[in-house]
Amino acid sequence: MKLETFFEKFDQFADAPDAVAKMRELVRTLAANGRLFGETESRECPTVRMKDVCAQITDGEHATPHRISSGVPLATAKNVRDGFLDLTNTDYVAQTTAEKCWRRCKPQHDDILMVCVGATTGRVCLAQNPPDIVLVRSVALIRPKLERIAPAFLDLFLRSSSGQAQIWGNVKQSAQPCLYLGKMAEFEIRLPPLAEQKRIVAKVDELMALCDRLEAQQQEREEQASKLARASLARFADAPIPTNLPFLFHPSYAIPPADLRKSILTLAVQGKLVPQDPNDEPAEECLTRLGLKSTVTTLNGAEAEDDSLPPAWARVRFEDVALVAGGVTLGRKLGDRKTVTMPYLRVANVKRGEIDLSVIKEVSIGEDEIERYALRENDLLMTEGGDWDKVGRAAIWRAEIPVCLHQNHVFRARMRSAELAPFWFERYFNSPVGRGYFESASKQTTNLASINMRQVRNCPIPLPPLAEQRRIVAKVEQLMALVDALETQLAASRATAANLLSALVAELTGTPNDGKVSVPSTSTTGRRGRPPKS
Predict the structure, then answer these.
(1) CA–CA dist 204, 160 (Å, integer)
(2) What is the pLDDT of residues 413-451, one digit of tens each?
(3) Ramachandran region, residue 476 (left: φ > 0; alpha: ψ -120 to 50; beta: rest)
(4) What is the pTM for the complete model shown?
(5) Is residue 417 in some structural domain?
(6) Is 200 a member of any domain?
(7) Of the four listed, 75, 79, 216, 509, which is most buried by Cβ atoms within 10 Å?
(8) Which structural domain, as residue segments, surrounds residue 438?
């Protein structure tokens, strides 16, 4: 198969992860391995070491130069981007300091700069008419012998999978990755005649421009699909009726499943997902019949911004309808008490909407405490916090383990009446509205947040009539099943596209196809290293 045919098939694998980036890498790989023009290209090319085709291979200043607010730019690893030199954020050194550093090396036109120390080792750019700069130890300078190798061809090799494999195959892994100059000098390069190198570089430029056009077209399609998706979500939110469901699950665009789930839950807790039935027992009457009452008086702040509940709904504090309790504290001294070892649930076990039983730990407690901390079927569990995504996560306990406890970082809520099912409250807490309450009420530190039992008990919750609660939960389950199916379809589509891309790459490169995309993605920019568009 010709490379042009590969590009013509782009639409068939455009959904593969980083499809355009992998196409760019394929072009570099074929170019570096002498297969860019197919079988007609000369195969009798010598393999040389990089030191044989370079006039200089060195690195920047080893001593830490004194930095000042302005002067000569100091280029570090952060300034060597993938394919271009970025000096928008850099330090400076004095002219006299720079002149001393230039005795070791001074970058000039067509030099290659490569990160040789740190996590971004192997990042390469071709210097095109660079300003006067000073390099530090973490940046290597490679100066090609122009009569032997085209600078753009050497840059192409180093950025290809073949070059990157040699780079990382020679990196010393210590406190931070480091590539020694001696190892760098021994890199092996397949070296065609200089005229052929230039022909390869020109072809690569042509194909990279084609990649740019394909990428622009892909972005335009994605933007249009995103606009349609947002409009469809808005239309469904305005009129969440069955006849508008096709706007959410439409073959012409795919609304992200996460957005769909959030939208469905938001509409559910606002009373917009199913129609109200005037024959339903109003929530206030239900509370009275059950011997309960709402302690909500007035709302303020964010709680009062949108309090337009359907007529038959009420608003309650969570403690009005549920008994909230903490769990067992780990590491307690139990003294001479008679103890037993029991399984317990941690924050890690309580996901949003499900209990993860893959890893269950045990704790020793007093025999007389089992009843206090043991979970019952249909208990609602909520997490105290940790990372942002863990705050207020809620899931229902299905009694998969006969006797199981919960630790103190997991709150347990038990309904005050058997008629009050926990399913409505679980959906509310996991909705964007419920999550918003806990995010605003939580105690926050860097990347961490937590809530306390008082905040859980005082959470204001809209309460529909019991019959409507059941209808809402059933509708949510139905829609979530559709979202799950959509997510499976999207994953299958991406997997199919990735497998097709893998097969096409294997055919072009002559490598075995293992069903996975075999070309690593080392760059998202063109060969000339154009900065990404903002």
Answers:
(1) 12
(2) 999 999 998 999 999 999 998 888 888 887 766 667 788
(3) alpha
(4) 0.61
(5) yes
(6) no
(7) 75
(8) 281-464
